[in-house]
Amino acid sequence: SEATKTLHLAFGFGIGTAVAAFLFQDISGSHLNPAVSFSLFIGQRISLVRCLLYWIMQFGGAALAAALLWVFNTNVPGTLALRGETVTASGVEAATAQWQGFLLELLGTMAVVYTYLASTNRFRDLIITSYSYPVALGCVLFL
Predict the structure, then answer these.
(1) Which three-class secondary structure state does DSSP give residue 121?
(2) DSSP character for 80?
(3) Separation CA 75–CA 78 (nearest Å)
(4) What count of other Cβ atoms lies within 10 Å of the Cβ of residue 57?
(5) Is 89 within 8 Å of 12 (Cβ atoms)?
(6) Which helix (H) or strand (E) holds 63?
């Protein structure tokens, strides 16, 4: 069913992000999203130069991933087209207003940034180990 496919996609995305955050936390601090890097710069946790370098790598990686998807699969399910249509897991197209897509991306990004900042806050009374925040990040992306 459509709901089962959507649940599987969400679960896979959450687990994949949690694993990526776990693998790269000691290398880059798991800066998987430019919004996270920007929020850490605003919060004075990283310098402007480091933020810009993260952005170059993040946008370059995104462009490379998009190019690979385009080469290997030109009809990628789940992509939001500029004309406001989205292809779901079952291949059925449903109309989505651009403001709805923007709002959903904004809320999702806010949840990711808040989770990252809250779980890596060194002034918290409740100590969260560096290996448990990827789990929190994966859970937020699953939801």
Answers:
(1) coil
(2) B
(3) 9
(4) 14
(5) no
(6) helix 48-72
